[in-house]
Amino acid sequence: MELHELRCKNCGATIGPENFVERLAMARCGHCGAVFAVTGLPTPGGAVAAPRPRVKVPMPRGIQVEDLGGLLEIRRRWFGPAFIFLAFFCLFWNGFMVVWHVMAWSMGAWFMSLFGLLHTAVGIGLAWFTLAGFLNTTTIRARRGLIEIASGPVPCGGNATIPTDDLAQLYCKERISHSKNGTSCSYQVLAVTKANVRKTLLKNLTEADQALFIEQELERFLGIEDRPMPGEIAR
């Protein structure tokens, strides 16, 4: 299997053996971070290898599962190392804005304080998101005819109730964002109805295995036969 000939489908960079996860038949680009399925690779005899069957994804870190027979409950903690950095950044940002406003008020420069209101709002929003990262858990409850998704205790939106009677398929998708700070990847779990309407169940997951595991467990519990979907990530 000549992995040095494999190239990223997103940016075209060469994929080395260290970026190939054989048990999942997937690769991650070391240049842009994109994750994609690896199928149709040439075998040593020159034939094209058949696509690998999807394998079972083990429970990743940050995920807890409780199967009570008639109720499946999956809990995902938001906390990760990035929130530690955000906590220090929030302290610096909001501390600076407090000093800014105190100086403006002490000098009677109200226009200076008004100028900083937008930055203050950004700092408050960032602090709220960071607090949610430390405290929040997203809970997915699946029961007969219904999937409920709720996050808390810090309100951040994303709660949903989805009937399963019209649910045709679940799949995961990678979202790649480019900015001046580099490239970042996040993962989504989506549902497709029998009328081919797509709904987002979960988004902004930081690890592909978390998204794939949640898809796998919901399909198992709901009795949904897994089928390939355009643009999905492999497991």
Question: What descriptive keywords fit this protein?
Answer:
alpha+beta, 11 strands, single chain, 235 residues, globular, three-stranded antiparallel β-sheet, 4 helices, five-stranded antiparallel β-sheet
Can you walk me through this structure?
The chain has a 5-stranded antiparallel β-sheet with strand order 4-5-6-7-8. The chain has a 3-stranded antiparallel β-sheet with strand order 1-2-3, with no helix packed on it. It is globular and about 70 Å long. 19% of the residues are buried. The longest helix has 26 residues, at 81-106. Helix content is 28%, strand content 30%. It has 235 residues and is an alpha+beta fold. It has helices spanning 81-106, 110-115, 117-135, 208-222, and strands at residues 20-21, 26-28, 35-37, 63-67, 71-77, 137-143, 146-152, 160-163, 167-179, 182-193, 198-205. It is built from 4 helices and 11 strands, in the order βββββαααββββββα.
Give a brief description.
The protein has helices spanning 81-106, 110-115, 117-135, 208-222, and strands at 20-21, 26-28, 35-37, 63-67, 71-77, 137-143, 146-152, 160-163, 167-179, 182-193, 198-205.
SS strand fraction: 25-35%
Rg, Cα atoms, Å:
22 Å
Oligomerization category of the chains in this entry: single chain
What is the global morphology? globular
Topology:
Layout: E1 20-21, E2 26-28, E3 35-37, E4 63-67, E5 71-77, H1 81-106, H2 110-115, H3 117-135, E6 137-143, E7 146-152, E8 160-163, E9 167-179, E10 182-193, E11 198-205, H4 208-222
